[in-house]
Amino acid sequence: LGLARHELGRTVWDERHLCHSPQERLFIDGAWHEGLLPPEDGPALRQQYQRFAARVAQAQRLGFALPTRQARWTPEHATLDAQTFAHWLDQQALTHPRLRWYLDYCCRDDFGADAATVSAWAGLHYFASRHGFHALGDETAEREPVLTWPEGNGWLSARLAEPLREHLHLGRVVLRVTERKHGIDLLAWNEAAGAAERWEARAVVLATPLFVSARLLEQPPDALRVAAGQLHYAPWLTANLALTGELLHRPGAPAAWDNVRYGAASLGYVDARHQSLNPSPRPPLLTAYVALPAARRRDLLEQPWQTWARWVLDDLAPLHPDLAPQLQRIDLCRFGHAMSVPVPGLRGSAALVALGEARGRVLFAHADLAGYSVFEEAYAAGMKTARRVAGGLGLAAG
Ligand SMILES: Cc1cc2nc3c(=O)[nH]c(=O)nc-3n(C[C@H](O)[C@H](O)[C@H](O)COP(=O)(O)OP(=O)(O)OC[C@H]3O[C@@H](n4cnc5c(N)ncnc54)[C@H](O)[C@@H]3O)c2cc1C
Predict the structure, then answer these.
(1) Ligand 1 center–CA 237 separation, angstroms
(2) What residue owns the CA closest to ligand 1's atom 27?
(3) What is the structure's pLDDT at 142?
């Protein structure tokens, strides 16, 4: 995609796509602070940060990778997978409220659920598969680059799809997938024609969430039935807020790409114009993110948009008391099953492994196969399955 090139053994990223500085800030104790890690309020917190950093370094020696299935799976991993992250942290006496808030935030941001819900494997994977964890001032290596686009990961999927444009049949919702003796029948709803249509295929890759795949297949394999029963999905709400003018400056660090309030129910907001290279001033466009507990899925569906708009504005008000009067337009998007939550036992699920390794004419490729949801996992699942299908059909895979 032209995002990176290799020069003298180093990866050099195209700076237009790297998150511009300042990247993150946290509103705590009445002021903005650079970064999302709460500032130290005494030696007890520093000591806890350092102890957690040491535990993450230990976990890295055990082996964590992104995509996760590139790492080996040992009994130690299984032990971590069998308990919640909160339980594991309690056992380690890592209980400082500021550390726990930060770890909860990371889990809600990446997994859609807090440390009391996700497994200890997931909580450690967040750090150990990437840059580790460093107390303030202890950062050694350069941070891993963050790529971001105003349209989010839609930028990536649009460019990955571009070379295949002629082969894509969009605007169709698959209703049924039936394996026959010599092929596969698909029943799809064609949105433009307003009619159902039948397709025949030699092979099918179900790149749909596993709970959807389980409903599409007339005869889902046992592993799919089991896996679909093990998955828990987090509902999410996003809100795009178009403002009429700049917000008042609060004390501390300047506006960043990601802006979070300590203790908030939401995950804060990103500035959708942060990457803009257009020098002429334009009013802010903010995207707020909310990961809700599964118990609130029905509310998300049933409560009117005004209720959720109010919820978002109330949540952001302590950051920007002048936000509501500046609001020109708000666009809300509800995701009933936004991402699979890595609850205890899920990463080690034999059913997920079996689906990822499935042979035959119907194969599976979705981030769900990793037990949690990030772009890298979706990409890895897609590539792996594409190669297998191509091999089975005697085609070359790119
Ligand atoms: C609000 C939000 C923010 C996120 N932010 C990040 C981030 O910053 N970084 C990151 O790495 N990940 C992020 N994620 C997670 C990321 O979006 C997912 O990991 C990724 O989209 C998974 O890709 P996938 O191809 O496996 O599945 P999906 O993106 O779920 O794609 C499945 C596709 O199947 C289609 N489909 C479903 N049913 C049918 C049917 N019956 N017929 C036809 N098509 C069907 C769907 O429309 C969808 O297009 C975020 C997720 C959310 C919800």
Answers:
(1) 14
(2) 366
(3) 65
Give one DSSP letter per residue of 317-378, joined into a string: TTT-TTHHHHEEEEEEEEEEEEEE---TTSTT-HHHHHHHT--SSEEE--GGGGTS--HHHH
| Span 129-162, pLDDT tens digits | 998 999 888 876 666 788 988 888 899 999 999 9
Residue with tokens 């334009």: 282
- Determine the residue of 208, 364, 368 to mutate for testing ligand 1's pocket, defined as the one with the most ligand atoms within 8 A of the Cβ atom: 208
| pLDDT reported for residue 86 | 98
Tens-digit pLDDT profile for residues 68-90: 999 999 999 999 999 999 999 99
The CA distance from 80 to 82, in Å, is 5
Q: Whose CA is nearest to atom 46 of ligand 1?
A: 208
Report the C-alpha gap between 231 and 257 in whole angstroms.
32
Q: Which CATH number fits domain 233-340: 3.40.50.360, 1.10.520.10, 3.30.930.10, 3.90.660.20?
A: 3.90.660.20
Q: How many whole angstroms separate alpha carbon 45 and alpha carbon 41?
A: 7
- Domains of the chain, residue spans: 43-146, 154-231+342-393, 233-340
Residue 5 CA to ligand 1 center (angstroms) comes to 27
375, 377, 379, 384: residue to mutate for ligand 1 pocket, most atoms within 8 A of CB: 375
pLDDT digits (tens, 9 = 90+) for 51-61: 999 999 999 99
* Cβ neighbours of residue 92 closer than 8 Å, sequence gap 6 or more: 51, 52, 55
SS3 state of residue 205: strand
Q: Which amino acid is at 85?
A: F
Do the Cβ atoms of 113 and 341 come closer than 8 Å?
A: yes
Mean pLDDT by groups of 10 residues along the chain of 398 residues: 88 88 95 96 95 97 96 97 98 98 98 98 97 85 79 91 94 97 96 97 96 97 97 98 94 95 96 84 93 97 98 97 96 97 98 94 96 96 93 75
Query: Ligand 1: residues within 6 Å at CB?
Result: 153, 173-174, 207-209, 212, 216, 236, 238, 289, 335, 338-339, 366-367, 373-375, 378
> Cα(207) to centroid of ligand 1, in Å?
10
